[in-house]
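tool_call: predict_structure(chain=1)
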Amino acid sequence: METLHHIVVVGGGAGGLELATRLGNKLGKKQKARITLVDAVLTHVWKPLLHEVAAGSLDANANEINFRAHARQHHYEFQLGRMSGLDRDARELTLEPFYDEDGTEVVPERCLPYDTLVIAVGSTANDFGTPGAQDHCLFIDSLAQARRFHNLMLNAFLRKNYDARNGDNHELPITIIGAGATGVELAAELRLASRELPVYGMSKLQPSDVTITVIEAADRILPALPPRLSKAASRELEHQNVRVLTGQPVSEVKPQTVVLRDGTELDSTMTIWAAGIKAPAFLANLTGLETNRSNQLQVEQTLQTTVDSNVFAFGDCAACPQPDSDRPVPPRAQAAHQQADTLFKTLVNRLDNKAAVPFVYSDYGSLINFSRYTTVGNLMGNLSGRSMYIEGRVARLFYLSLYRMHQVALHGLLRTGVIWLMDRISRAMHPRLKLH
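tool_result:
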């Protein structure tokens, strides 16, 4: 009996899960190839939503996808494990041992063979070696980190509400380091939380007691986006009583203090690091594969690694060149979605010994969501290439459609419609914020 071609996708983020789903539906269902998805956790939540999970405006339990159940529905296999090594000659990857919460080994270290390997392990925050950042900052790179942040936030609000009841100092300074999309959107979600939580029994703590500061090293917030969008976002943050400091690199983070490069010290009960990204460190140690300073795997325009045509990489963990540009594809969700689509075509072609499809990135614009207050953004014209600025309700609809498009890619149109209806019912029945 002929052995099926084995395609292994490492990383169940937005791009990796979309790719495994499409390959399973196309190739796995018809027994044309064996598809395996590997991830270190059991569930998927769309990463652009993690700041909403952290602030409590989104219930992750209602929005996460169980890999095992999803694999069964879409004709691929799921392996729980964290990739730690690669033997390219033997064509097998190594998965770390899996331990339970008590530290007991459940599954030992093991090897997984492949014919084609796709690495889509995403990225983590880059603290650029800032002293104290790892010890005193909170991060929201994963669902576990977002849930931990949410619990700490609720406890901080509860503690300060108690202090206010007793007439003690009850100011709650929160600092967000980094004013990219995540930092700006998180600031708006935290402002919403400061206004909503008093309704649920924390009436002594007023929104004005919660000071939110966003710090950006560049001369404007959202430095990777058009200046007009930055100005609109700055105005909205100011309207929401969020303090913005630009041109202010952070030199050190202390337990209750953030130190700026000019020596200014800011009180900070909660400090969140949202500045910069890098790929996981283990990628730099994979045998022979080329990486850059941010640990990203260097790939060709076909998304094949530069030294091994059987190993592909895409998303935030890959540095993909573009024609007529000296910059790689930006680490954005829309880029990962487009790369998954291109790589799907390439891998289907691969089984028929056809050529790989070069990836060309199309920038469809950017949208910044300020919680339930407003949304601003720019859309790129497909024909003219010109940018169109949008805001308010129209921009909000476009923003919400991004997540629905991701759900359609994973579940199909009919199931996404059912999920949308369930979301509407859930919002009508539950508090506006997750309170536990």
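agent: The mean pLDDT is 92. Proceeding to next step.
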